[in-house]
Amino acid sequence: MLNPMRSYRMEAIKNRYVYKNDDLTAFMIFKIEKIASMIAEKERVSFDTAYAKFLASETYRILQRPETLMWGEHAGFVVDEYYREIENRR
Fold first, then answer.
1. For residue 10, what pLDDT is reported?
2. Whether pTM exceeds 0.85
3. Torsional sign, CA 70, 71, 72, 78
4. d(Cα 40, Cα 51) in Å, to the nearest integer?
5. pLDDT in tens, 54-74
6. Helix 25-43 vs helix 75-89: crossing angle, to nearest 10
7. 3-state per-residue secondary structure call for the chain
8. What is the mean pLDDT of the chain?
9. Closest of 57, 64, 43, 62 to residue 85, by C-alpha
């Protein structure tokens, strides 16, 4: 049983996404969730599978670097880039 008087410490996010002193971390978390959801829906796989596939991609590595400005693109654009990457591997 949880003790409501006990304080719970939240784990800090170790990696932050910052661009020109603006913290984009929450925005990026939501964007990555949207991208993984779109991939899962398109491929008819679980969210976890799509998330793992996206995290293993070069597109994700580019998205992680705020200076590329890919974070400012619509999630659909990033998904298209992900599929271009997959196609170019073939």
1. 39
2. no
3. positive
4. 8
5. 999 999 999 988 888 898 999
6. 60
7. CCCCCCCCCCCCCCCCCEECCEECHHHHHHHHHHHHHHHHHHHCCCHHHHHHHHHCCHHHHHHHCHHHCHHHCCHHHHHHHHHHHHHHHC
8. 84
9. 57
